[in-house]
Amino acid sequence: MSRPFTFYEFFAGGGMARTGLGAGWSCLFANDFDPAKARTYAANFGADDLKIGDVWSLEGSDLPGRADLAWASSPCQDLSLAGGRQGLAGKRSSAFWGFWRLVEQLAAGGRAPRAVAVENVSGLLTSRGGADFTALCEALAGLGYRFGALEVDAERFLPQSRPRLFVLAALDEPPAGVLGPPGAFHTEAVRAAHARLPEPLKARWLWWRLPEPPRRNASLSDLLEPDDEVRWLPEARTARLLELMNPGHRARLQAALAGGGRAVGTAFRRTRMEDGVRVQRAEVRFDGVAGCLRTPGGGSSRQFVLAAEAGRVRARLLTAREAARLMGLPDDYRLPGSASAGLHVAGDGVAAPVVRALAAQILEPLLAGGGIAAAA
């Protein structure tokens, strides 16, 4: 029987990449600097493979064996890659270079991961006029990897709008089945980023083949708690939230009320510029999809659930368990005790079903042809 595929998980958060990879994968090493997220990771997967601390404090010698895959969901607050190789003096997204320094050390010792997956926000494709994406590709090419990018919105798998960029790189020669012509997940932004690359990097580009998934059946309302098991906002607070809507969003709400039956949507508070003035607005959607989950760093980042029925609108905050479901986590996934901590774990993760699709369609066929994962 073949061994499971092996992986390192960097910027691991609550272990959503590990969840998505699934039972056919074995974690050799996981790292996150946030103790609260690390406690959640340990509660779900144990702490044997987990190292808590800044990635810059690690050395290649801390990582056991040779992994098939190194997964890195590096911080996205500051997208600069090209100018961020300054260790602890750099901003948070320079943490990518802390991860890459470890890959370089592994490669120097003959232990480079056979594949690398980097997940980040789609803005990486265009930040600094594309220079940051080029820097990432140069780093991959410098260690002999071939690479390609896909832009995948979790909405194709889950009722949450969450577009993310996935850069997959391989040392092995890819089998024909994982490559193809540009497809649905090679968005206009991905194709433009490829076109901007210098010719030597274009020569190392791979057009990964990710088939479109079956039509999603689940809607937002399918993942919500029963009405009588959640706390709804008082009517006065709900009214204040609705007053923040501009005419366009108020019209969406009125259409939901006029449709008959029950309509469920979500809302965010956002600050917008109107006539040169910063104005707080409530922005709603009733298309069966939640807005992109975010970490609860401030009041505007908390997502509301709206229920419009029989001429009445009720509002409440999205629960941590609902946020976990919107990331594709099972209900037996152990969340932190507080709602804020649970929302932080969920909002700062990668959607598990997207990871599963990438693993099933690309990573596993890529790695199955040889090397340590296929050894008996």
Q: What key attributes describe this structure?
A:
alpha/beta, Rossmann fold, 11 helices, 376 residues, 20% strand
Q: How does this structure look, described?
A:
The N and C termini lie close together (6 Å). α9 (320-326) packs parallel to α10. By secondary structure, this protein is of the alpha/beta class. The longest helix has 16 residues, at 352-367. It is built from eleven helices and eleven strands. Helix content is 29%, strand content 20%. The chain has two domains: 5-214 and 350-374, Vaccinia Virus protein VP39 (Rossmann fold, 3-Layer(aba) Sandwich), CATH 3.40.50.150; 226-318, no CATH class. The radius of gyration is 22 Å and the shape is globular. Mean pLDDT is 92; it is low at 86-91 and 371-376. It has helices at 16-21, 35-45, 95-108, 131-142, 188-196, 199-202, 235-243, 247-258, 320-326, 339-347, 352-367, and strands at residues 5-10, 25-32, 50-52, 69-72, 115-120, 146-153, 163-170, 262-274, 277-285, 304-309, 312-317. It has a seven-stranded mixed sheet with strand order 3-2-1-4-5-7-6, sandwiched between helices. Strands 9-8-10-11 form a four-stranded antiparallel sheet, covered by helices on one side.
